[in-house]
UniProtKB/TrEMBL annotation, chains A, B:
It catalyses: tRNA(His) + L-histidine + ATP = L-histidyl-tRNA(His) + AMP + diphosphate + H(+). One of its GO terms (molecular function) is ATP binding. The lineage of its organism: Bacteria, Pseudomonadati, Bacteroidota, Cytophagia, Cytophagales. It comes from Rapidithrix thailandica. Keywords: Aminoacyl-tRNA synthetase, ATP-binding, Cytoplasm, Ligase, Nucleotide-binding, Protein biosynthesis. InterPro entries: aa-tRNA-synth_II, aa-tRNA-synth_II/BPL/LPL, Anticodon-bd, Anticodon-bd_dom_sf, His-tRNA-ligase, HisRS-like_core, HisRS/HisZ, HisRS_anticodon. Belongs to the class-II aminoacyl-tRNA synthetase family. The gene is hisS. This is Histidine--tRNA ligase. It is an enzyme of class 6 (ligase). L-histidine binds at residues 102-104, 132, 146, 150, 296, 300-301.
């Protein structure tokens, strides 16, 4: 064996066939839902100019960008002084491109570049890897897929309702039954900031509230005090974060509280309208929980915000999104409102493994393996094999006349449900033996009969 | 509009919805064929350690690798002396990873790393982008997809025959009718080197012959002379490169010539066996042309080599592959024979555009757009829309009550085949107007009837 066994970079993964089949099940399911709601595919380059990427994800994000060394003599424009000024300075000289960090900024860049040609409202889905030079850890990778859908160029709240419908449908198709779609609205949080006497400070409020799950109310309050929120404000905030009752109870209570907050009332109106649309569309809204503690941190959201939790599984949110008023402003195109959703495929994978939800059959897998006894059986099987394939069956002949046990092992390891054997007896009678690998049952059949059994 | 309109790196592309739908048609078609023949998906990381990538593609290939700057203070291990020694020296200090250059080396690396767990013969397909810092030109990109299938761990020639079958099936499904699969065998080229008196020089011979298409016989001969081939050898080579007749004629002629070349005879035997398998499998072999001038340059092939040309279209080969005896030797694992095929998706795309072969309908596209007249029509349409979606139809409601012309334009630009209109008359009668966008025909129907028309 290899002396120096090769490896892969930390935080990256190979996806072998077994894992790929499962991942593809998730991707295809989500994709089918996106398409059903009118979203169409987009792909952008893995590399973007650094001018597109930097300054979009905060200082921390800039640190986490993977940068690509310029081709050829990348030092041609650098002097020793540049070297001596340190790596941060040198970076700009030797690297002009980086790997995409998410799918949102490239999407915004695409919309701005193609604005005149696009068909608005523009509904796109995008399923591609992104890269972050994060410290690798359990569940945290340096390369991972994002799975986004966004519609831009409309502020219709039908889009929000359709996002709820898509989430319901995607999880139902994946077999995940017990989940909660947490829904809030940034305008409601803005209203809360107003009524607790900290008008205009909703961003800091969101960043603090966002940690509620992780650090608890006491620490959140401490952080708010540190950020200069008044004791009275922190005290006034608590009932909001502890509010109980169903969605409509909460809306009613807040309506009372927001008498003097126009923005807060607007947020409630939007939420109410989303619930109205859901009812009209007969979409199951029992999965939706209006959650005042949902804040989604330092993001650019301005209206509805979403997050999906799978209940009774210890894992963070598996999906999230929201409405933004100004996706493309950073590239100089203002007033482009939209709303988006993103599914966390790695976490959904882990949930489905834990709950054993992956289907055992798959169109990705070979359905029938023909055993290769010898030259004669090979000659007999090959035309039958092609006949099966022409009927749309994924099938293969073991390419060598290896030991039968080895061939059966091959079928088992590959999860192939049927094995077909043709020794001299079968050949003499123009038959085959069809073996069901799960039940162990064997049948002596004509090739056509075997095909019929398999096709069912 | 934007002051500084953002751009994308040279040699990279955005794929908008219209192009993606067509590209996906190609990918899905090829994937379905790969699966039918028992190949299973693999994905490897975009980044590989440079130790895995360098030295595998020749000096030129090493130059074309995209290298990723180490994260954090990438200069921490470098001194001014390192800087002064120039970029080639510094690279090793500041960059440990690169973007994959092809899918073959990562596949070999994967096989070596997972050798003990794999199910041999291991059949994998892999469809992922690769990156090359090449000078961008028409049809030459810095990021492009490869679409490979390989089987390793067997030297059965059934695999070669199945590759021919897969190529036939893929092109048939794509609608490309007039194509030629050029087939040769490296052992035959080795035999030719022997019989023209230049034994052991088949690599140089292959590199020269490979240019025949581009530079013509005269220049090939000049190159061979320059490389030190004798005048007699060059003269003896000509009849091989000009050989006419059908595949079996050529095999018969060569059999005569190869009386004293064991390797040459072995190559002929292999070719004959592939043709025998094709006949047995009832695979159309009229697409296959035994072509002695097919060499496939400086690659690691040792047996069969393939290349596919679309006839009557000015474009290079659209697919290629071959058998190699030692895929993983470079990583210390010897004796891993295999055979592979790769489809050139960008060229296939261009061919299909030129020949107008893309289907006009697609499951990726929205089938029905509901027009949004006003609040009342919206309320009426939304439950019908959901009913359509539950029946598996990709459908959408225009989210705003915009001008009808704008909404119809939206449907046209998105190639949506049906538009559904419900004004006050339709609503009063619990009907809809179904408009076929291609024929212009309009029908007044119940929602259920409309669904039936669309589903057909």
């Amino acid at each position: 064996m290899a002396k120096n066994k090769p490896g892969i970079p930390r935080g990256t993964r190979d996806f072998g066939p077994e894992v790929m089949v499962k991942r593809n099940f998730i991707f295809e399911t989500i994709k089918s839902v996106y398409k059903k709601y009118g979203f169409q595919p987009l792909e952008t380059p893995s590399m973007e100019n650094l001018s597109v990427l930097t300054g979009k994800y905060g200082d921390e994000g800039d640190q986490l960008l993977f940068r690509i060394l310029n081709s050829g003599d990348f030092l041609s424009k650098s002097q020793v002084e540049d070297f001596e000024k340190g790596y941060k300075h040198l970076t700009g000289n030797i690297s002009g491109k980086g790997l995409r960090y998410d799918l949102t900024v490239p999407f915004a860049r695409y919309v701005v570049m193609n604005w005149g040609q696009l068909n608005f409202p523009f509904k796109r889905y995008q399923i591609q890897p992104v890269w972050r030079a994060d410290r690798p850890a359990k569940g945290r990778y340096r390369e991972f897929y994002q799975c986004d859908a966004d519609v831009v160029g409309t502020d219709s709240l039908i889009c929000e309702a359709e996002i709820v419908a898509m989430i319901n449908e995607a999880f139902e198709k994946l077999g995940i039954e017990d989940f909660t779609i947490k829904l809030n609205n940034r305008k409601v949080l803005e209203g809360i900031a107003e009524v607790i006497g900290e008008q205009g400070r909703q961003t800091e409020l969101c960043v603090a509230i966002d940690k509620l799950d992780k650090i608890g109310l006491e620490k959140v309050n401490e952080e708010l005090i540190q950020r200069g929120f008044s004791q009275a404000a922190v005290k006034a905030l608590a009932p909001f974060l502890n509010m109980s009752g169903n969605n409509f109870d909460k809306l009613a209570i807040l309506k009372e509280q927001f008498q003097n907050s126009e923005t807060g009332m607007q947020g409630l109106k939007e939420l109410q309208e989303v619930f109205d649309y859901l009812e009209l569309m007969k979409v199951n809204a029992t999965t939706v929980e209006f959650d005042l503690t949902l804040a989604r941190g330092l993001t650019y959201y301005t209206g509805a915000i979403f997050e999906v939790k799978v209940n009774n599984v210890q894992i963070g949110s598996v999906s999230g999104g929201g409405r933004y008023d100004n996706l493309t402003g950073v590239f100089g195109l203002d007033g482009m409102s939209g709303v988006g959703i993103s599914f966390g495929v790695d976490r959904i994978y882990d949930v489905m493994e834990e709950l054993q939800l992956f289907p055992s059959d798959s169109s990705e897998i070979t359905t029938a393996l023909f055993i290769n006894f010898d030259r004669e059986s090979e000659r007999y099987c090959l035309p039958v094999l092609q006949q099966f394939r022409q009927a749309g069956i994924n099938a293969e002949l073991y390419p060598d006349a290896a030991k039968i046990k080895k061939q059966m092992n091959y079928a088992n390891k590959k999860n192939i449900p049927y094995v077909i054997l043709a020794g001299s007896n079968e050949i003499a009678n123009r038959q085959v033996t069809l073996k069901n690998m799960q039940s162990g049952e064997q049948q002596l059949l004509t090739p056509e009969e075997a095909l019929e059994v398999i096709t069912k």
